[in-house]
Amino acid sequence: MRQVAIVGVGLIGGSFGLALRKAGFSGTIVGVSSERTIEKALACGAIDRGMTLDEAAESSDLLFLAQPIYAIMETLEKLLPTLGRNTLVTDAGSTKREITETAARFLPRDLFLGGHPMAGGEKRGVEAARADLFVGRRWVLDVNRFNVGHPAATVFRKWIREFGAQEVLLDPKRHDRLVAWASHLPQLASTALASAIQDSMPEAQTVAGPGVMDMTRLAMSSWDLWNDILATNSLEVGAALDAYISKLQDMRQDMAREFANGSAFAKSLRGENE
Amino acid sequence: MRQVAIVGVGLIGGSFGLALRKAGFSGTIVGVSSERTIEKALACGAIDRGMTLDEAAESSDLLFLAQPIYAIMETLEKLLPTLGRNTLVTDAGSTKREITETAARFLPRDLFLGGHPMAGGEKRGVEAARADLFVGRRWVLDVNRFNVGHPAATVFRKWIREFGAQEVLLDPKRHDRLVAWASHLPQLASTALASAIQDSMPEAQTVAGPGVMDMTRLAMSSWDLWNDILATNSLEVGAALDAYISKLQDMRQDMAREFANGSAFAKSLRGENE
Questions:
Q1: For residues B31 and B12, what is the distance between their CA atoms, to the nearest angstrom?
Q2: How far does Cα B85 stand from its chain's mean position?
Q3: What's the farthest any 2 CA atoms get from each other in chain A?
Q4: Which of A168, A163, A221 is nearest to A16 (CA)?
């Protein structure tokens, strides 16, 4: 592989460039972003040069779309006319169903491999990019496409391992249902908790301990990012939110059971036995 | 001060003993607990010897009650007949209204100073005790009693500073209202989240990231501990829980506002400017 293009050089895109370099990739890393972002990405070594989307699509072996979700879908819609005949397209969108449906409508089946590197942070932008952002994190790939047979797919999957990430193969609909519970519901639970305290009892800060710090960390996330995620997974997120509200309403009936049940999940999540 | 007695030598009681020693206290540290706990507390150096409650009450200058909340109240009820005339009693109960009311009924006003060291951890028992458990943590004292004029109170407050903790003076009712929001509601939000995922979508573990880890850490807490806390603060906790449920129900109406509002609280909690 000689040239990789990163479309959207923010935290994820920039970290992909830095991780590629660290993993020993010796080809050219191209960035497609605003002029200001390209300057910052060049300065921190995440890319070697900037290009327009058309130039990058034509001349790269792999396109890594790391934009917000709706921007990824817009890119997919206009990519085909300039896309190189052997260029593989992958993405980093946090929901997968709508993106893979869009790709299926606008691109040949073999040229798109949907992905979701499960990494991030409160800080955004290429300034926050790190070569080790993906270490120990899961990287979901579309199970219906992962064995796409495209040579670039084989190289890309090898990089994921070299980044220290763990490949997880999932169907896009299944992915979206699981992240509704494991990621989107926790986000809403944190945002609602912080917002409820802010509205009703901001003075509670006086006695804040590590518990409320943990529980409000996600609440610092940006709405810009979450708007697209929640809009493209609204049915699954709505179902999870309803179940959470029911649980909060019902838990007074047998609090001991809820503590035992919640504790079982929390421990299992950490690989601890009961 | 020549002798301090720790009643209930668990995580908090044991850490108090270790912190006292580290702060240079050269008197005797006595433990009142089950035989098995006393053995473990002696082994890890948290206490110098075991005693019965009556012996400890008679011979100590300060009694530190670090039992579960209802056990603290039972101790307060039976303490007076054996309590030394100049012995100050303080406690580590996580709620303060019912405990201070009980103390007011059963002990002379000047002999009880309610307290709440805001420290802890998922691990319980004296085995988990650490001399630095209180470093950087708040230690709430009853604002109606802190200037009790008792010489032991002055020494005790100096120790709190030497432990690296920060004294916060609060009215017991006010304390219970604030911790309902800053501690008890986050606990219930975490337990309900973990329990809802466990009931509805335990497979979500497959795509778990750091967000859901943060949001389920508190869910590992023990019901044994929380039973007393929630029972002695049920009105305040109920009001906070209702407000949280309303917020979750209403947040779909203006999600952008909720993200901004929640983020403002989370950042303010961390001393960050907008």
A1: 12
A2: 27
A3: 63
A4: A163
d(CA B249, CA B15): 42
Residue A269 is nearest to which of B140, B216, B227, comparing CB atoms? Answer: B216
Cα–Cα–Cα angle for B27, B158, B132, nearest 5°? 75
Structure tokens at A196: 């409820």
Domain B175-269: homologous superfamily in CATH:
6-phosphogluconate dehydrogenase C-terminal like domain (1.10.3660.10)
- CA-derived radius of gyration, chain A: 20
- The CATH superfamily of B3-170 is NAD(P)-binding Rossmann-like Domain (3.40.50.720)
Instruction: Kindly report the pTM of this predicted structure.
Output: 0.92
CA B155 – CA B90 distance, rounded (Å): 12
| Chain B environment of A241 (Cβ under 8 Å) | 248, 252
Instruction: Give per-residue pLDDT as tens, A132-183.
Output: 999 999 999 999 987 667 899 999 999 999 999 999 999 999 999 999 999 9
Whether ipTM tops 0.95, in short, is no
Is the Cβ pair B249, A245 closer than 8 Å? yes
Contact A205 B259 (CB under 8 A): no
B182 DSSP 8-state letter = I
pLDDT at residue number B274? 46
Question: Which residues make beta-bridge pairs with B91?
Answer: B65
Q: Which residues are within 8 A (CB) of A42 and not within 5 positions of it... i.e. 6 or more apart?
A: A31, A48, A49, A50
According to CATH, where is 1.10.3660.10 located in chain A?
175-269
Q: Are B32 and B52 in contact (CB under 8 A)?
A: yes
Please count the other Cβ atoms lying within 10 Å of the Cβ belonging to residue A92. 28
Phi first, then psi: what are they for A141, rounded to 5°? -125, 150
Residues 6+ apart with CB under 8 A from A118: A137, A138, A139, A140, A183, B207, B209
Closest Cβ–Cβ partner in B195, B213, B243 for A196: B243
| The two three-digit tokens of residue B227, written as one number | 């039973």
- Find where tokens 């992915």 sit: A175
Per DSSP, the three-state class of A95 is coil
DSSP lists the bridge partners of residue A156 as none
